[in-house]
Amino acid sequence: MKSSVIAGACMAIAFSAAGAAGDPELKRESYQKEIDGKKVDLYTIRNSKGMVVKITNWGAKVMQVLVPDRKGVLGDVALGYDSIDQLQQGQASMGAFVGRYANRIGGAKFTLNGQEYKLAANNGPNTLHGGAKGSRFVVFDAKQVDDSTVVMSYTYRDGEENFPGTLPSMVKYSVTDKNEFLVEWAAVAADKPTVVNFTTHTFWNLAGHNGGDVLGHVLQVNGDAFLPIDKTLIPTGELKPVKGTVMDFTKPETFGKRIGADDEQLKLGNGYDHHYVLNKKRDGEFSLAARMFEPKSGRVMEVWTTEPGIQVYSGNFLEGKQPRDVGKGGALYAFRTGFCLEPSHFPDSVNKPAFPSTVLNPGEWYTGKTVYRFSVRK
Predict the structure, then answer these.
(1) To the nearest whole number, what is the mean pLDDT of the chain?
(2) Residue 339 · residue 204 · CB < 8 Å
(3) Which range of residues forms the domain containing residue 101?
(4) What is the CATH number of the domain that holds 122?
């Protein structure tokens, strides 16, 4: 089956608003450019309640999310940039739909069916988020389906970033009148065995994209175990219970309460940069992964997903550097002014046989869904 046909099948299964006061409106023309011979644009999806999400097809990156606070005032809770030029100089993963392989691969290599594949070492000795380019720097084909839905597709070539196999893929972004932001994806191994792991990498701050550090947010994670990391941030292979550790968010806890503790794992990660094993009744179950609450605004964000794990990241590599960390409206994204909750398969699964498999054989599909559900608390 030709890859173009499969890409079409991916599309088939998938089926300008002003911000609140103080939130700059992202202008479509500021995101219109040609990159690698393809047109880049900014796409807007919205619901009937006022929620707005803006996404560029360069890296399928989420650049703005407007949701109400407890007073009903819309605010921008996603970190992002005013233009495509600024984004190209910005944080590489900010807002991206990450593939072909999200998170880290230890030693920048893996073996599949007896053959070793050497990858780009773009994060110390490891591969991060698909390699030197990955999906973060490619132009997706995009189609606005309706006011609330946009579908973006990209076909990973056999040998791209030295991964084997042609992999047509799609991601569908949509919003509902329940103030949910849905991220649904599908990919199929077209011709060879391959490995695949997607995630969505929006940087959040529920006080507002320019709302200061996120340490006062309150986090709960539906996971009783996490993956300890080594000095290069690769999981050791152990699934460690969180009970009695600084990693325990099984009950709501202020994000920053223990982040400065004298703990080896926090020191290795420079804060939280760890993968949690989600409590699932069965593989692929769509269930609650995490909940974040911001007391001043009253905003609550729940994360629901079909994925087996979630990366909790406390914005440790936001450094307030120019031009990389100068965001919308000139906001300076400094240390820990954003957080990420990234559902995916476990990091380095390709080298850890005991982890949930990320291998896809010819004709097999990788499908899934993550939902960011917004509400308020009085």
Answers:
(1) 94
(2) yes
(3) 3-376
(4) 2.70.98.10
